[in-house]
Amino acid sequence: MPTESPVDHAYERQKRARRRGVRLGLAASFVIGLLGARTALALPQPCTLLNDRGAWYQPLAGDGPAPLPSHPESWAPAPRGNQLLPGTYLVRLQAENPNPHPITCIFLPDKLVALAELFTGESPQPLARTGWFLPLDERAMKSPQAVLPTVLPPGTNTFWLRLWVPANSPKIPSSLAVQMETLEAFTITQRRFDHAHGVYGGIMLAVVLYNLFLFFSLRERLYLLYVLYASFFGCIWLVRAGMGLTFLWPHWPLWDAQAHYFMIGLAIIFGNAFTSAFLELPMKAPRLARGLQAISVFVGLLLVGVVLGLHL
């Protein structure tokens, strides 16, 4: 009877080890799947908005929103259009919680709204307030996003949403549409949003610091122009994402509502200057260089006009 060689013995041991590994892997996958299913079943079902809505409108009168009426029908029906007119809007919302217990849900009005307040109709005090008109400390959840959290009891619940659009607003909402989701879903989405912009900000910071190092090392004006262009270009998206309001100017909501316009203008000005210097346009294409300078002057005058308008 032939004896088993050391090679065959080692091969059999490896085969048995692989089989045990496969069994353990399948068992672990089964357990993890059960835990995941249990967790998914434990999550609350999503809250939903019903289609039974009404919307009313009161023209602008004074420096703030109109008080809540005793009978919404005393106001005019909300006008339809691509943009909301200045004034106060009142929207009736029917929200349903299919769970047997209360859950926290988030109302999401138009992100360009100046002021949005959520009421139950039982009290003149709002449950939550948001909008770019408010400083960060006065907004619900202290979030730069337009969010209105509330605890939703089981069943169907009626809420009233008051929206205010001031005159000469730098941001004008386009509709009265409202979305709704659970606090857990909103938190996950917001965390991904913040992480993505954090990565973008880190990349732009690395680009700026590297070119700033080259400027101080080589004393080339070209690198400084690129640093200024990249800085303002990167700030466009970070300011639009609410990073400026969160970390730099939480008490200046009016500036935050217009800051990205200044970032766009300055990015155009320094981008034109960098392009002209990099391509040596004053020597190789003087007309094109003068054209870029004219665009930069025009954009600069627009920014000066906006600054003067803010102080008048």
Major sheet summary line: 7 strands, antiparallel
User: Which class of the largest domain in CATH terms?
Assistant: Mainly Beta
Total number of domains: 2
Q: Give the H and E element order.
A: HEEEEEEEEEEHHHHHH
Task: Calculate the terminal CA-CA distance, rounded to whole Å.
Answer: 106 Å
Tell me the radius of gyration.
Answer: 29 Å
**Total count of helical runs of at least 4 residues:** 7
Features:
312 residues; Membrane protein; Jelly Rolls; 7 helices; three-stranded antiparallel beta sheet; alpha+beta; 18% strand; seven-stranded antiparallel beta sheet
Describe this structure in words.
With 312 residues, the protein is α+β, with helices and mostly antiparallel strands. The chain folds into 2 domains: 48-177, Jelly Rolls, CATH 2.60.120; 188-311. It has helices at 6-42, 183-218, 221-240, 243-247, 253-278, 281-284, 286-311, and strands at residues 48-49, 54-59, 76-77, 87-97, 103-108, 115-119, 128-130, 148-152, 155-165, 179-182. α5 runs antiparallel to α7. It is flat and about 70 Å long. Mean pLDDT is 86; it is low at 35-42. Residues 197-307 form the 7TM-DISM receptor extracellular domain. InterPro entries: 7TMR_DISM_rcpt_extracell_dom1.
Can you give me a brief rundown of this structure?
The chain crosses the membrane at residues 198-216, 223-249, 261-279, 291-310. This protein is an alpha+beta fold.
